[in-house]
């Protein structure tokens, strides 16, 4: 996931396992100290209401938090993020050519209305997701780049039902029997086991979708197929929770799916509030009206100094790094020495300690700590103002030339604060006078996508899943202005990353990605600045294991169903 | 028919029965209202045109994301087809006009499968409840404080009242709202061990309403009080008030019957727009107290370039403002006998 700004609201990822210990409940004590059922209510802030309750249409983390709880994908990550493990599928096999994935479904899996989940529901769910007329955001590049037949996704005429039908029936999806779901790929992809962990790749019930739509519909129809997702009664899922109530733009209440194959959760209610303002959520937490929140940056110092609150605060690393983009289509940013001079003149330590209140950590590499590929041995971008100045002299670039450039900044408190600091660093350490260009977020996105900027940041990425393929494709030359906003020219990078993506040996993959990462750092493709951490407040009576890499101050991870409330 | 000097002969060209209608006060009022309602059609048309142009001039498409994976070109292309954005803009404009004639305001881009009408209908009850409650407080409190300050001009009462009004008008909404939350929710909960405190946020028909309604009404109260004071001071210096006093009328009678009725005219002018402002929602109050009203819905729509939602709410707001102004004009007839509607 591409991150546009440095505010905590887009915090996405966290690695490793952190058991939030409840009062009295340690791992050695067999007693769970479980509160009575009436108190098993967990209230979290989700920030914004999902645009859709159909997981296949969800693209943001605040949407996936609900999607992951109500629907279950085939596989999920292991707690240490080292590999996948079974979820809705007990196990899976890969053919020796790496092209056929066979998933063996949980035989006792049931929908929230009690009907068994069959392999044909999986085929239907994937087909619904891959219908080009419905334009689901997460199809590309994960699914149209892997599943056989899906490579034509972009060229299907979405106004022709027959064109869509033939595309869908040509996809490499099949259900040889009720408990076996087979997916055929276009090419070997070692990371495909991670793709099927995404919240968008779930089964759907044809009968429910069609009855909510008022009957069968043409595949060109874009509204009827989504009718079911607008009514709590017709959102029938296969996840551990089901939706009991939706109060539009206010909150959604989840209750246990008593038919869940893995046993119903202990929580009797999981309530997600949609509070956009971090300060409002913070006030609610302090009055006991919320159980889990992210601490607004401005309040970090207050929380640390408060005897009670500091005990409830937890710092979690996230699989997210941030960097600065230089528009390499504009001279002199086509010169790696100039970019490196900028990268080497940012005191990251001072940024994270002084500006970010020592929550986020200074980082001068790409792949974040906590997942395979994290490597901090390359110090090419380390803070060194003298070396930075020497690089500028070597590149023979004058201050007057550089002073005409501006740092494009999103109009959010987080982005403005960080960029003000960074621009000060450049101006002080390199003797420049660069200005900020602060404009509204949508306009910034539109300008970076058109390449209409000089320097932009903080730009960043949070893992969709902890496989390096998800990271390195950002800097493909074909992704210029797509996700790769600065468009640096890195000779040999594309071929190397493509090889690593399709390579079946994990050792070889890691070695190739490491070389690619060195290219990014040494040629200052971007200037890396920090890895994001989540600073959360968790009420002392909440017991849950924080493991997922893509939840957002909420227990919306793959292990939420084990959370519970202790006596208090 | 005798023509009164200086007054147009309105009935001259109309058939006898209609002219009888227009000559009567109630009749002319009815015609006036109908005329003004018909005028709303071109007004709304231009509101749509201007909003449509500005909306499409603003950079950034509804599908650009400020965070998260950007959508691929294929997906964007299919989304444009899904929502009719693949057509030329002038065509989109006329298609939209054609649809709203049938009261079809389209589908929101932000919320999959939800209609603009549905989203607005979800938000209005919250916003209207807060707005109407605030309005009910504003009129008596604002007018009362203003009259009191004027009648006790240059006394301690005047200074305190106007001091309050100046303070209330100077502090931004979000500061007052946030401050109240800190004092009455957070600190109060701490001090009383969670025994008594006001809820920090959310909407419910109970003590949840106290802080949002107060925050919403402070500025209009201050404004109304200042205006009422000025206009009351103006009125009490008029000859007819001196006459009323000279006649030996009681203070109550002078104030209520003579001063108040005359000094309220400028106040009524501002109450229309104030009411419109209140029921179209306050972004700040709705954000601070996390209330899912239409003020917030409008701003999120603008931020995410949700074109149908922007147009729908703008049309609604323009109609509410037009109606509020119409009501004010009609009220003039009853308050100020000099006013004739033509």
CATH uppermost class of the domain at 116-335 in chain B: Mainly Alpha
Q: Indicate the CATH topology of the domain at 116-335 in chain B.
A: MetI-like fold
- Overall pLDDT confidence of chain A: 90
What is the correct CATH architecture of the domain at 116-335 in chain B?
A: Orthogonal Bundle
**How many beta-strand elements of chain B?**
0
Helix content of chain A: 25-40%
Proportion of strand residues of chain B: under 5%
pLDDT < 50 runs, ≥5 residues of chain B: 1-14
Largest interface: A-B, 65 and 54 residues
Q: Mind telling me the CATH superfamily name of the domain at 116-335 in chain B?
A: MetI-like
Structural class of chain A: alpha+beta
Strand content of chain A: 15-25%
Short description:
Chain A is α+β, with helices and mostly antiparallel strands. Chain A contains 17 helices and 21 strands. With 342 residues, chain B is mainly α.
Describe this structure as you would to a colleague.
Chain A has 17 helices and 21 strands. In chain A, the strands form five sheets. In chain A, strands 1, 13, 14, 15, 16, 17, 18 and 19 form an eight-stranded mixed β-sheet that branches. Chain A is globular. Chain A is an alpha+beta fold and 568 residues long. Chain A has helices at 61-70, 119-129, 161-169, 192-195, 206-213, 278-286, 300-305, 309-312, 336-343, 348-355, 385-395, 399-403, 413-430, 441-450, 469-472, 493-502, 506-522, and strands spanning 2-3, 18-20, 41-45, 75-77, 84-86, 89-94, 100-105, 173-177, 180-184, 241-247, 251-256, 269-273, 292-294, 313-326, 361-362, 406-410, 435-439, 455-462, 526-538, 542-546, 564-565. Chain B has 342 residues and is mostly helical. Chain B has a domain at 116-335: MetI-like (MetI-like fold). Chain B has 13 helices and no strands. Chain B has helices at residues 16-23, 25-57, 73-82, 89-101, 116-151, 156-170, 173-191, 210-236, 239-246, 251-279, 283-288, 294-303, 307-335. In chain B, helix 7 (173-191) crosses helix 8 and helix 10 (251-279) runs antiparallel to helix 13 (307-335). In chain B, 35% of the residues are buried. Residues 1-14 of chain B have low confidence and may be disordered. Classes of the chains: A alpha+beta (568), B mainly alpha (342). At the A-B interface, strand 1, helix 6 and helix 14 of A face helix 3, helix 5, helix 7 and helix 12 of B.
